[in-house]
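Aggregate trends can hide what the representation actually does to any particular protein. In the encoding step, the backbone of a single protein was reduced to a row of integers, each denoting a local shape. The record that follows shows the chain in one-letter code together with its fold in token form.

***
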Amino acid sequence: MSYPKRLIEVDLPIKRISAHARREKSIRHGHISTLHMWWARRPLAACRAVLCASLWPDPADPLCPQAFRAAAAREIRAFCQMVYKGTDLTALCDNDAWKRYGALAKRKEPLDLKTLPASLVATGNGQAKDSTDLGLLRDLLLDFIADFAAWESSTNEAFVTTARNLTQAAHEALGGAPGTRPLIVDPFAGGGSIPLEAIRIGADAFGSDLNPVAVLLNKVVLEYIPRYGQQLAQEIRKWGQWVKAQAEKELGQYYPVESSGNTPVAYLWARAIQCEGPGCGAEVPLIRSLWLAKKGRESVALKFVPRPRAKRVDCEIVTHAKAATVGDGTVKRGSATCPCCGYTTPAASVRQQLIQAEGGADTSKLLTVVFRSADAKTYRQPTERELLVVKRMTDGLKRAAVIPPIPLPLMSGVFNVPLYGITRWDLLFSARQLVTANVLVRHLGRVEQELRNSGDPGLSLATEVLLHLAFGKYLDFRSTLCTWITVGEKIGHTFGRQALGMIFDWAEGVPFGDISGSWERSIEYIAEFVEMEAKARSKPGVAEQVTAQRHTLPDDCAQAFITDPPYYNAVPYADLSDFFYPWLKRSLGPRFPSLFIKQVAPKDDEICEMNGWDPVRYARKDAKFYEDGMRSAFVEANRYCIPTGIGVVVFAHKTTAGWESLLSALVDSGLMITASWPIDTERSGRLRAMGSAALASSVHLVCRPREIAAGPVNTNSVGDWREVLQELPKRIHEWMPRLAAEGVVGADAIFACLGPALEIFSRYSRVEKASGEKVTLKDYLEYVWAAVAQEALKMVFEGADASGFEEDARLTAMWLWTLSTGNGKELAQAGMEDTEDGDDAEDNGDTGKGGGYVLEYDAARKIAQGLGAHLEELAGVASVNGAKARLLGVAERTRHLFGRDEADTPGAKKGKKKLKQGDLFASVEDIEAEEGSWGEKSVPKLGTTVLDRVHQSMILFAAGRGEAVKRFLVEEGVGRDTRFWKLAQALSALYPTGTDEKRWVDGVLARKKSLGF
């Protein structure tokens, strides 16, 4: 069966879409992210663009229906005329696109929709362009998609109407019944981004998920907002205010107001232990930092006031604080130092004491009370009255009466709070936080009674759900894992990371008022989102709780499945959602009995590799479980999608194991990959990006049923291994420059190349060697990595023959290039702090002693293998530690390159203090003093490889040995080797901006001309 290619199978303006997706991360008001917490939600910009490009045929494809070409020409011309006539759309359009819009708007003759030059027949990923009208129409559609991806375009009537008309025209031209809309299915709907954008562009959407919290979110975006729109926003505000008015009467006594009438906005606490120093026993508050507010000359900090006789540590508030006078906190890597006696209680003892205190929420020490004045926040010490109020609430609370005592699991690298005694979900909250939450929930229950007399039960239910989601937002900012953010003076939320890491000093916000996460703010953020989406006037979709492996949809009912499935073991959605689940079950369980059957969120069928995190609870959830589950989900998608339908699978895992599992599942399910596009969706400064190979892009894999994409002849055909290997490097060679032109490099480019590579392999049901042996996908991916590595190396050295460099240089260049995507230049955003205990900290790019650059071991091994090197034989360049491999920093190679082991340094022989990492370059002077400088009789040995010699020159420059650099390059002849300068130039481009290594190699390069090279 023949079919026309969709736009996404031919071209996609990924650079422009990526820019909109990145910008969207900073948008808050009216954005779906403000509805409720959900982890790893996709940017709307990327979803909107991908959906349009997936549903609309390529007008330049020879099989494109003439009806669609005519409709597209009509719709896009009308849109161009709106832009050209100077409407406010011009501000939303790319400059180059605007020129094309204007050219079409001024054009009098209609587009020629029948001429089809040979150059347009097999374009494939946009490699061929043409100036004919069909080529122009394609470009205009792609321009429109890129401009529609902008946040401001999402509710603009001209964009939305044009998109819906194009979607309808495509649907009917491709065989859809008149008056019906294409059905888009997302079997892993999660936070609802994809289904939301599906109904925005005029499709029907079926969003399903196993997780009850996700199902509620999708009901809001697919069912409630399209049906009730602005009226729903009004109801939320109305009843949110009603709940506040009722609860304030009851809660006022728990948050004392000053005699002057000033109301606190936050209380800053620290968990506390007893010092185990001999004869001390003082109560020590566990404080990470003494800063309260960082705002230049108006900065505020705490100062310890030790009271040894009273066995306690008090704190004073210091205004106009300066960095030079603000001391350190008491906590470092989990251990605690007592300000009274100086004794450091080890981390194990700190943990044991907090275990005895069940996490220490109710034994915490109140440090500071925060107030908001007209133009600033002010701080004061707590009063006896405030301390007495909290004590009474703590003594009188029965926690089990608020929420059931549900265990909180210990999960390595995800949940470390049980190590400190927080072994139940209720222990994440202090007594006052639980009492306040209980009062709010009670009054939310009264809202249901008040709404029963409403004339529209559907609107009443929608209002209830959104009020309880607002309560979930409130809880996210009202646990004892919320930090006080000193820049901006605000409260961070519980899920600043996709984990629950221990926070020793925490912030408690008041329930009402102008402060992060308050009830009013939670209500208003949701109301703004409802208002924003109501402007789109979308048709309702359907949201249901369905297991992706056993879907309820009938055969051949959907035109496309577009989904963002779980990324192997990246996010434990079900366990994270248990933070909210018990509260929702308590309130909404009677309204949704089938959703809230169990005590916690369902986990048995969740497709995620969990064995590595929790081998006790998830013994069976290994890589095979993930692969089998994904295969079943894709088989189901293939079943309910029409034969000529299309699929898009989003994936962004940074481990090769994760990719291999997903790709194996996809190929084995009978799907063939026809295109792949990386779209940049992440902040460069996020924690996971710092110095590691975290992906900035999400790769969108486009697929079709193999019997359709490959044709009936190839459905059960056998591919020849030799032919596949011959085609692979050609395909990568075509694809890599396109990625580079779009700014896609490093790890993003490596994984983005998997799509084109799989286009070759997945067109066959089986690939065999000449002997008849089957080639597994895992075997094929080894060759893919090699092809990508070799092609990337050609780009790194700008077309030079990389084989002229030794293995260590090739590996170093490729390693740094792989990491080039994730090098963040900015600090992680406020509220994204790491866990307090360094032993349990998330890998945020800390490369360990000596610096260096970290990759997953398997990725590093495959890169080395692709370059003809063996990682284990390059110990002087890289080290391996378990599942991690590290490219050594240049500083670490000092003694190796200058012929000295650390124990034999002249400094050590003379009895000097052992050199610290930062003082390594002093050893260069010691060596020269003992053996002679460069150019004299006894000189350090020249490095055996070009990389060694480049690193030697960098080290000499870093040590301030300018004359030695000159003799090294000129008299020793190192600089006469053109490879030396070629490698130095490549390393300059590869080392992250702002690093010492970048500065050192640039310093060497700056001397090239003056030295006569």
Residues 1-30+58-173 form one domain.
